[in-house]
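Tokens in:
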């Protein structure tokens, strides 16, 4: 039976440059899609956030480049909390799937693995 689930992911970039944002976001989405067997037609919506130190490009542009042309996408800025991981792009994808909730695989790449060290033991 298909259900709607959500999956989280995050990545980081080394500097706020448009191509860095796009490359990192495409990588993150590609890995999330592969690990969770997500195809574009299964996606309900995608929410991206960036830390306040990223302003050169919208992560949603990378999603459009991957073919999510008719998917609702939103970008927002994370709370500017002192000590937070810098240059971080986060994503929350809502999608239809036959996977069970415990089979959903969140993805944290590069320095973002620090956000969820508990997942590294999976």
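Residues out:
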């Amino acid at each position: 039976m298909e259900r709607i689930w959500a999956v989280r992911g995050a990545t980081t970039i080394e500097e706020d440059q448009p191509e860095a944002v796009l490359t990192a976001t495409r990588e993150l989405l590609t890995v999330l899609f592969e690990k969770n067997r997500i195809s574009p037609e299964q996606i309900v919506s995608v929410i991206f956030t960036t830390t306040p130190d990223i302003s050169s490009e919208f992560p949603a542009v990378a999603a459009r480049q991957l073919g999510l042309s008719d998917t609702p996408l939103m970008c927002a800025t994370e709370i500017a909390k002192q000590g937070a991981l810098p240059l971080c792009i986060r994503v929350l994808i809502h999608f239809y799937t036959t996977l069970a909730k415990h089979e959903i695989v969140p993805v944290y790449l590069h320095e973002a693995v620090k956000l969820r060290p508990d997942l590294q033991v999976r």
